[in-house]
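During the second half of the funding period, the structural biology subgroup turned its attention to how the target accommodates small molecules. The most pressing case was magnesium ion, which had performed well in the primary screen but for which no bound structure existed. We therefore specified the complex as follows and requested a full 3D prediction, including the ligand pose.
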Amino acid sequence: MTMDIRIVEVGPRDGLQNEKFPIPLDEKISFVKKLFLAGIQEVELTSLVRSDKIPQLADAKELIQEISQLGYIEKCWVLIPNVKGLEIALKLGLKNFAFFTSASELFNQKNINCSVADSIIRISEATKLLTASTYKTRGYLSMVFGCPYEGSIPFNKTAAIVDQLMHLGMNEISLGDTIGNANPVSVRECIKEVLKILSLKQLAMHFHDTKGLALVNIYESMMLGVTSFDSSAAGLGGCPYAIGATGNVATEDVVYLCEQMKMNTGINLTQLIHSSFDILRLLNKPSFSKVHQYFAKDLVHEKK
Ligand code: MG
C-alpha cells in the first residue's frame, strides 16, 4: 500500500507546553530548525496565550520572529486563543492558525473557563478577521475519546461540534485523544461519525500513547483512509493527568511505522532522532519513543 502520510510535528508547542521546565529560546530555535532539516513539513510552533498562564511558551513572539527570519514561518501553526491573539498573529505575519475547543464541556470549563458553545463564539469572532484565502485554519478538539472529568463523550456530540467549526470555514479538524483512551474500535466509530461532516482530507488524528495504543489507533485510522497525524518528536509532552505517563505519540514511532509499511512521510528518521537530543538532555529525560531508544544508541550525539 503506497500512501503519502502528512505529519504535523507538535513537539515545540504541545510537547514543550507540557514539560515541567521552560526550554531556552535558542534551544527551541535549534530544535525547530533541526526538525525542518529532518524533512518535517509542518510544525505546531507555539501558542499566543498569556505568558503568565503558560510560562513554557512565554517566548512565543520572539520564537515566531526568529523562525520567520529563517524562512520557515509558512510551515508553522500557532494556537490562537481569541481575537486579541489573532491580531498579534497577523501582525507577526503568520499564515496558519489553530483554534481549540473540546468535546468535553467540563474540560472546556476547567481549561479555558467557558462552555463549548461560548468557545465556538470566541473562535467565530476571530475567524471573521480571516478574509484572505492564503490563510489556513485548523480546529482542535480535545478529549474526543473520553475526559477525566466527564467520562466518555458520544461521537455524535463531537461530530456536531466539528460541524460548527467547519461552518466557520476551518480547513481541517484535528481530533485529540488527550488522555490516550482510544482503541481501534472506538477510532473506527469516531471516524465514521465525523466523515458524515467532513472529508478525509479535512481530518487529522491526534493520538496520545498514554497506554500504548497510539500506533494501532494510527494504523486503524490509515486503514479508513486518514492520512494526517499529529505527533511529537521523542514523545515530548507527558500527560498532565497521570504523572510520569506518556503524552503525544512520538514522531519517530509514526515515521518508523510508515517506513516499514512503505508509506511516504518525507522525513529522515536518523535526522529526526538527532533533532531532540539537546532538548532531552536539558529536560534530563529519555525519549518516550521506542524507535528513538533503539536507534539512538548507535548514533553519535551531536556536540553543540
Ligand atoms: Mg497532544
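Two results from this model are relevant to the next phase. The pocket of magnesium ion is lined by residues 14, 206, 208, 237, 247-248 (CB under 6 Å). The two ends are 40 Å apart (CA to CA).
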